[in-house]
Amino acid sequence: MGAQLRDTATELAGVLWREHTVYRERSGGMVIRGEHVRRWISLAPAGGRDEILVRAGRILDGGTTAPARSEAVVPLTAGTDVLAAACRRLLAEAAADSVRPPRGGTASGSGRSRRPGKTARRRGRGRHTGFGSWVIVLCVVGVIGLYVYSNATLHG
Prior knowledge:
By secondary structure, the chain is α+β, with helices and mostly antiparallel strands. Helices cover about 40% and strands about 20% of the residues. It contains three helices and five strands. The chain has helices at about 1-15, 80-100, 130-155; strands at about 20-25, 30-35, 40-45, 50-60, 70-75. A hairpin with a 5-residue loop joins β3 and β4 (about 50-60). The longest helix has 25 residues, at about 130-155. The chain is rod-shaped, with a radius of gyration of 27 Å. The relative contact order is 0.10.
């Protein structure tokens, strides 16, 4: 499957971008880098016999790659046109995610969701301690004051 994957990646790279670099990654998959569009595509064998996992992501400043923003499983026998269409869809999703500001510290298109029970902090607040925190602090100070007062009256 390695030679077929390499041939498919080379053919796909020519369809997607005029300027590209194709290389093999450590895991045996193939990567197509489009430096001029600051995007990358990765083709790797998937769980199925003739299926490939297609992932897309951005190229960051300095040439490092950001983690994949989107992925899809495509039959290897589907042909270059179908594979190119899937890649264009994934690249469009990666581009949309790079333009859209992140919400709550997570990438919205990455499949990860916000942790339950966590609320987003309001930005621009001048104080750090909210009303509820002050009520708790006053209650703790009151309990300590009551303890000191009761010990002073018992032993005094």
